[in-house]
Amino acid sequence: MSAWLSRKVSSLNLQELNEFDGSQEQKQALKELGKEFEITTEKLRSIVKQFTFEMQKGLERHGAKVAMIPSFVTGKPTGMESGTYLAIDLGGTNLRVCKVDLLGNGKVEIQQQKYIVPEAMKTGEMRQLCDFIADSVDMFLTEIDTDSYSEALQLGFTFSFPVNLRTINRGNLMQWTKGYCCTGAIGKDPGLMLQDSFRRKNMKVNVAAIVNDTVGTLMAHAYRDPTTFMGIIFGTGTNAAYFEKMDNITKWEDDITSEEMVVNMEWGAFDEERRVLPMTIYDNRLDRESINPGTHIYEKMISGMYLGEIVRNMTLGLVDRQLLFDGKSSPEMNKKWSFETSHMSAIEIDTSSDLADTQYVLETVLGIPSTTLMDREMVKTLCRLVGIRAARLSAAGVAAVMTHCNLLPQDACTAAVDGSVFEFYPHFSHNMMKALKELFGEEVEQKIKFSQSHDGSGLGAAVIAMQVSKGN
Ligand code: GLC
User: Fold this and answer.
1) Contact 461, 87 (CB under 8 A)
2) Is residue 52 in a domain?
3) How many domains does the chain have?
4) pLDDT in tens, 396-413
5) Is 126 among the domain residues?
6) 147 is annotated as an active-site residue
């Protein structure tokens, strides 16, 4: 293995690219890419500044890009909540249906089942999708032997898309993200549509709350740890929610007695006006070919649905310049979305001398006829550039919330985090913390703890359904 590759893979600087022992043209191409994908500390600062500005705008008025949606969730859970609730989670590959028994003392029992959402459902009619959800809930209740019940079951509906809420269980879908694009849904109320499917099937289930996954993640973690102030998703998509003072949500017009409310930021939409995000031609291409061009561009630079596709675009660029794979691609590599983010993870953790796992991904999975060690090293570098940029941009969002809430002078706090990128992408959390240290100094590590949280959409949605049904 070259000295260049044996380096610790958690960081990459432009200096390192000089030591890469490929041809002059290859070196030059990687250096150019390195420059384009670099987020310097100074750049990070300007992104954080714009981020806090857009957060403020979203709190002041309706219709801002970073929507800062009031969630109607006001109370922190105490951990003493009890009762049985249903929760469902729609927003990624699977539909998850759960029965949650809150037992008090921070204890909980969850029974759950996953149902694959057929691709056709994600792009078909919303009414059909809701019927599919109701059927799945029906099946689940039969499987766990709860199909006869006298009182309506209260359900927390984790619907991980931007919904402008009017009440805790009523609101309008603003737009689709993450590859969903059902017809008959935008501007409509997903809670009401699902309720209608339950009614048509004579099921006694009440949609008590529409919950964003970030809000669920925050509440689930807060059920066990009261220092939790933020819920973040770094998964198929990305977004965050945090406790905001009511006085700061100046666009809020109704009366309310509580002092705080969880705000669903919808931060994936940050910088849609393209003032600070350093989008490359590879990002632009991905955006143009996505189902929601021009929107959620921050999400497209960070989250699992998209990172592999950026690397695919870069790879094909180098192939076209005859700098990779002897100028040859493959039908699979030419297919949109074929380079999954999980392939990037496999390549990034491959430290074998001949990069055997990388070879497997490129040749066996993606059908490139043959690769040299140099080819594999180059693709690995592309993955690192995209992975490091994603972690640093993610840190900018976290830093903006910390700055806005003036958290640094305060006691240590916890951000609950869920999602495959955070959990599985090599060095992601390390690189994110590194960027935070550049912004706030070493001591930031003592100020914010990122805690992996798995049960947001189940436990979190159930806790919220419980708060609603008990009138908290
Ligand atoms: C997308 C959705 C948002 C969700 C996030 C993470 O950004 O718009 O509502 O929270 O993905 O799943």
Assistant:
1) yes
2) no
3) 1
4) 999 999 999 998 888 889
5) yes
6) no
What's the pTM? 0.94
Decide: 54 and 406 in contact? Cβ < 8 Å.
Answer: no
What is the Cα–Cα distance from 421 to 239, expressed in whole angstroms?
A: 12
Instruction: Specify if 198 maps to a domain.
Output: yes
Residues 6+ apart with CB under 8 A from 287: 279, 293, 294, 297, 300
**Residues ≥6 apart with Cβ < 8 Å to 304:** 234, 235, 236, 341, 419, 420, 421, 425
- Residue 181 located in a structural domain: yes
What residue has token string 């380079």? 339
Domain CATH code at residue 80? 3.30.420.40
Domain span at 93: 70-225+455-469
**Cα of 306 from ligand 1 centre, angstroms:** 13
Q: Supply 218's token pair.
A: 């925050």
Has 213 been annotated as catalytic?
Answer: yes
**Ligand 1: residues whose CB is within 6 Å?**
91, 160-162, 177-178, 212-214, 233, 235, 237-239, 266, 268, 299
Q: Which two tokens stand for residue 439?
A: 């912004």
For 445-463, what is the mean pLDDT? 90
